[in-house]
Design brief:
single chain; 194 residues; alpha+beta; 2 domains; four-stranded antiparallel beta sheet; 12 strands; globular
Length: 194
């Protein structure tokens, strides 16, 4: 079945109740012109193209709305002090400030998300490699990375960004490698306004 401008208008009208106006403009720019229309042989392929443009969902990011420096540190787990900066529960992402006491050891744990950390004050030591990260040092941990670490003699303040695929971001492991605790996106949810 061929596609003409009437079919395209009907198709755009069908999806318009779910689309963000900016997405409709993008669709118009890519699909609305005759040269692009000739690349599609039927409505089904145009429908698939429109769906692949990702009919935009409502904004799901919640971010701190005032000075995070004036906020109190929140405890989300044993020894874990944070100031949540931004959270997106739909995309399983969180950005926060982390503060830990001198020589604190979280124990063996596995990241179920990608993690980026920038040391702002103090230091952190990866006990597996022996490497110490100092103020200004950045490191990335891939999803599935298991390790143990220790905060330096002055503790640590760091910026952390975690990007996962589920609510659970980190699992804490006992000596047998069994999970006994976790950090989840939902642990942060109450720290930012809805």
């Amino acid at each position: 079945m061929g596609c003409n401008n009437n079919d395209l208008s009907a198709l755009l009208f069908h999806y318009s109740s779910e689309c963000d106006p900016a997405v409709l403009l993008i669709i118009d720019a890519y699909v609305g012109s005759p040269p692009i229309l000739r690349e599609f042989s039927n409505i089904k392929s145009i429908g698939n193209f429109i769906m692949s443009v990702n009919i935009k969902q409502k904004q799901t990011v919640r971010a701190v709305s005032d000075h995070s420096s004036e906020k109190d540190w929140s405890i989300i787990g044993p020894g874990i002090h944070v100031k949540a900066l931004a959270i997106d529960e739909t995309r399983h992402t969180i950005e926060y400030l982390l503060k830990e006491d001198a020589n604190w050891k979280p124990g063996l744990h596995r990241h179920l998300c990608e993690t980026s950390l920038l040391v702002l004050e103090g230091s952190i030591i990866n006990r597996g490699t022996g490497h110490e990260y100092l103020p200004g040092d950045f490191f990335y941990q891939e999803k599935g990375h298991t390790h143990d670490e220790e905060m330096g003699k002055d503790g640590i303040v760091a910026y952390v960004s975690m990007r996962g695929t589920s609510d659970t971001l980190v699992e804490f492991l006992d000596e047998a490698g069994e999970v006994y605790g976790s950090v989840k996106i939902s642990d942060f949810a109450h720290l930012l306004p809805a």
